Amino acid sequence: MIAQSLVIVLAALILVSCGDDSPAVPPAPPLPDSSCEGLYGAPNESTGLNSDVCFARIEGDETWVPRIWDAASLAELRSWTLENTPAVLMEDPYLTTPDLQPDEEAVCAVMVTGAQAYRLETFANSREAELAGGIVTHGIACGLCSSLEDLAAYAETPDQAGPVRQCALENQGRVEELDACIQDAVGFTPPCARIWAYNAVNDSRECLSICVAELDSSYNQEDGSLNPCLQCDEDNSGPVFKAMAGRTRRSSGLAAAICRPCDQVWRVDHLYE
Predict the structure, then answer these.
(1) Model-level pTM?
(2) Structural domain count of the chain
């Protein structure tokens, strides 16, 4: 009886230690780290901030540094073959599904199916993806920009805002021409370039006067906030874009010329071997 009582006491102590009063454990990658402070990005001459206040690492309870991309690693990404390629959008989602919201609790994972071959699959969270043998490639459900080829385009061009804006100015409202310009300028796949084109068209509907006034403005203001044009895009085009595209720079852990609060950034290592 004494031995049995000791077992019961020990079991109770274990249950208590696993309860809500246990110390908080910081989230492991790839989840965003809410304990971090500062801005995450790779500032350039258009950013308006320098590397003293915006930098390509996340410092919280732990420090996370993103993967460094070179020609060989970008070529390796582009060598993979996606087996479930999404179709190119034929209708403007900002008109057909204007209230669409992204599933930001989900993750998109690479499911390796053979030598340099893969499928993309959405999971409810990173734990489920890992248990299924998946490699998380970005936060948010899979979409039109989730391929590793599009990841390479994002990583190779940290400042997509400049070339996409120029394409929008040269091809106002002409979706197919705008799409082709974005493919040439940035290297996105056709499905990904098309949602970027529709995003630009929607910005011209919702933000034109604001963005014209901000043509010469830096991406970020002194306090780290976005300039009014980028904020208008974030508010009016952001939800539908994220829901359709899936991959964004923040959800992929990529440092960009537009600096963002570090606690919005997924810490994805992008190791697909």
Answers:
(1) 0.88
(2) 1
Joined tokens for residue 155: 């990583």
Q: Which residues contact 141 (CB under 8 A, 6 or more apart)?
A: 102, 103, 106, 107, 108, 122, 243, 246
pLDDT in tens, 208-221: 999 999 999 999 99
In a domain, 178, yes or no: yes
DSSP for 219-255 reads: SB-TTSPBPHHHHHHHHHTHHHHHHHH---HHHHT--
Assigned domain for 226 exists? yes
Which residues constitute the domain of residue 187?
A: 69-254
Give the confidence band of 241 by pLDDT, cuts at 50, 70, 90.
Answer: very high
Whether 111 and 147 have beta carbons less than 8 Å apart is answered as no
Whether 19 is in a domain gets the answer no
Task: Give a yes or no: residue 57 inside a domain.
Answer: no
Q: Give the other-Cβ count within 10 Å of 14's Cβ.
A: 9
